[in-house]
Amino acid sequence: MQRITRIVAVLLVSGVLGACGTEQAPSSPPADPGGTATPSGAAPPPSTPSPSLNPQPRTTFPQTMAAWVRATYQGDHRYVGDCREARPGPGAVCAKREATVDGGVVHGVGAPSSEIDAYVYAREGGSGWRIVDEFTPSSDMYGPATEPTPAWFEALGRGY
User: Fold this and answer.
1) Does residue 23 lie in a domain region?
2) What are the UniProt keywords, alphabetically (predicted)?
3) Is position 31 within any domain?
4) Residue 157: per-residue pLDDT
């Protein structure tokens, strides 16, 4: 008898849990002749979550650069901030704002108190900053550029 009771209890609980919801959005109730789908006296549900209830963190420029440095540089490199304020150190990589071009910002990237090795083109959008493109110009250290010079870099007028 105990075994049957457990089986029935499991079926009842699983049935209740199964009815709790699905991954699909709930279907809205049919509209009444007045043209609304809410019961009289009830406020309509909000169409989108309130920003104060579900704040989405925006990606800051330093967070974006830190992720880019980890993905681009090999070893234990880390982003240490603006090159004008950054101190040299093992694996330190900084960024220096160069110009605003076509709604984005160009930053030179390299070791603090050293030459710039590469450039990134970043834009700020609804979710924060993102790196749109990157470019390493020709240099004695890296040799000729391996890709065509992007228009955003040409706008700097560096003549590499």
Assistant:
1) no
2) Signal
3) no
4) 81
